[in-house]
Specification:
Mg(2+) binds at residues 12, 39. Substrate binds at residues 309-315. Its cofactor is Mg(2+). Its EC number is 6.3.4.4. The chain is of the alpha/beta class. The protein folds into three domains: 2-96 and 202-266, Adenylosuccinate Synthetase, subunit A, domain 1 (Adenylosuccinate Synthetase, Chain A, domain 1, 3-Layer(aba) Sandwich); 101-198, Adenylosuccinate Synthetase, subunit A, domain 2; 271-436, Adenylosuccinate Synthetase, Chain A, domain 3. Helices cover 36% and strands 19% of the residues. The strands form five sheets. It has a ten-stranded mixed β-sheet with strand order 9-7-5-2-10-1-11-15-19-20, sandwiched between helices. Strands 14, 16, 17 and 18 form a four-stranded mixed β-sheet that branches. The longest helix is centred in the middle third of the chain and has 22 residues, at 152-173. It is globular, with a radius of gyration of 22 Å. The structure holds inosinic acid. Inosinic acid is lined by residues 10-12, 37-39, 124-127, 129, 131-132, 226-227, 231, 240, 242-243, 278-279.
Length: 443
């Protein structure tokens, strides 16, 4: 049995809480794309864990795998693992030998390129973690993979080829000075040592084989998508995207299992009850048109804790965007959804969703394929009855029927429009603050 968890908006939908909740029935939790640009907060026994690379399942004694579709910064990885160990956990993390490694020059180049774009509308607002440049090298067939770290000769050979290119780029194209990030000897030394630790701790695996063996032995697997559909390199709002595929297809290419395996399981879209966005790009339902909307956005931002887990940046806030969700449900083939942060909208004077878009006088239910056209879309708004602040902990305990009627209407609208059942409703940040409806592992 497999369950794939996909962010259906712009990331930060609260996937970690659901991965953590249902991950209890998984034996293995596998990330299939992205790197330390992600941020998931997991609350376990009142303890809060902020992770960016280690799969959240690892907090709950599951095997956590970083698939070949991921880009891995070993410095972040080991600092997170060491931190979890200091807090008394013993995470079992495996890395695909085919996954690419984020090197110090990737981070430097990510920041240099953002800086170079700063005065144009091409700025992406990346997390500065070197994600894009690492995927560029992967596609350019000049990347360093986890498997290369295990073989010092191969590592040296690859670095001797690629580093002079990076140095030339930094110095000759951008007119800056290259530093330690382009020191081949220092890199060979540091990354050989990392390879030694990977070998010693038996962390590097052939991901596809590893998962096949474990599935054959009867293990349940959860595929944990990072980021969200709208920042998918193929299906998102290009160029304001990350450089990988958070959509469900990525679970197959990013781990080495067949698409049929992913497709025979459940694919659950995680939806936040409203919208947030870090970084640039259109957002038709953004709350920013007048002072009242800005106040509302501030309120939601504070109440929902909408500040980047990785960068601390305040997130832009908007109403739920249905054309975006219809697009997400189709691209990933959702079999169900979980709706988070319903409590954040409680007690507001108004609750709206962008039901459709208006573009050149025509109403449309899904998103245009180009970001420029998307930016021209005006939301066609649907207003809902508001719901009051209630004791959400009690609601979580009592179940779906205890959710205020108006909020149930909101949820049912969502489920009807996307034509999928709702498996869970998040009414607070902790795992226990979730209204359980169905566990996808039981299907
Ligand atoms: P990158 O992934 O650092 O290259 O950033 C590319 C775009 O994706 C930027 O707009 C980021 O703000 C956005 N992004 C990357 N990771 C996340 C995430 O985990 N949540 C939300 N946005 C993200």
């Amino acid at each position: 049995m497999t369950v794939t968890i996909v962010g259906s908006q712009l990331g930060d939908e609260g996937k970690g809480a659901l991965v953590d909740l249902w991950g209890g029935d998984a034996d293995i939790v596998v990330r299939y794309q992205g790197g330390d640009n992600a941020g998931h907060t997991v609350v376990e026994d009142g303890e809060e864990y902020k992770l960016s690379l280690v799969p959240s399942g690892a907090v709950r004694d599951k095997v956590g795998v970083l698939g070949n579709g991921c880009v891995i910064n070993p410095r972040t990885l080991f600092s997170e693992i060491d931190d979890l160990r200091e807090r008394g956990l013993d995470p079992d993390v495996r890395l695909a030998k085919r996954a690419h490694v984020i090197m110090p020059y990737h981070r430097r180049l990510d920041n240099i390129e953002e800086e170079a774009k700063a005065d144009s509308d091409l700025t992406v607002g990346t997390t500065g973690r070197g994600i894009g440049p690492t995927y560029e090298d992967k596609a350019g067939r000049r990347g360093i993979r986890v498997g290369d770290l295990l073989d010092p000769d191969v590592l040296r050979q690859r670095l001797e080829y690629v580093v002079p290119q990076k140095k030339a780029l930094i110095e000759d194209v951008y007119g800056l000075e290259a530093g330690e990030e382009c020191d081949v000897e220092a890199l060979v030394e540091e990354y050989t040592e990392i390879g030694r630790r990977l070998r010693e701790d038996d962390m590097a695996v052939n991901c596809g084989d590893f998962l096949a063996e474990r599935r054959e032995a009867g293990d349940n697997v959860m595929f944990e998508g990072a980021q969200g559909t709208l920042i998918d390199i193929d299906h998102g709002s290009y160029p304001y995207v990350t450089s990988s595929n958070p959509t469900a297809g990525g679970a197959a290419t990013g781990t080495g299992v067949g698409p049929t395996v992913v497709g025979q399981g459940e694919v659950v879209g995680i939806v936040k009850s409203y919208l947030s966005r870090v970084g640039e790009g259109p957002m038709p339902t953004e709350l920013k048109d007048d002072e009242r909307e800005e106040e509302l956005a501030d309120f939601i931002r504070e109440k929902g804790g909408e500040f980047g887990t990785v960068t601390g940046r305040p997130r832009r806030i908007g109403w739920l965007d249905m054309p975006m969700l219809r697009h997400a449900a189709r691209v990933s083939g959702f079999t169900g959804i979980a709706v988070n942060h319903l409590d954040v909208l409680a007690g507001l004077d108004e609750v709206k969703v962008g039901h459709a878009y208006e573009l050149e006088g025509e109403e449309r239910l899904t998103m245009p394929a180009t970001t420029e056209r998307w930016g021209e879309c005006e939301p066609v708004v649907k207003e809902f009855d508001t719901w009051p602040e209630v004791d959400w902990a009690a609601v979580a305990e009592e179940g779906y029927d205890a959710i205020p009627d108006a909020a149930q209407d909101y949820l049912e609208y969502l489920s009807d429009e996307l034509d999928v059942p709702i498996y869970a409703v998040g009414v607070g940040p902790g795992r226990e603050q979730t209204v359980h409806i169905e566990n996808p592992f039981d299907n």
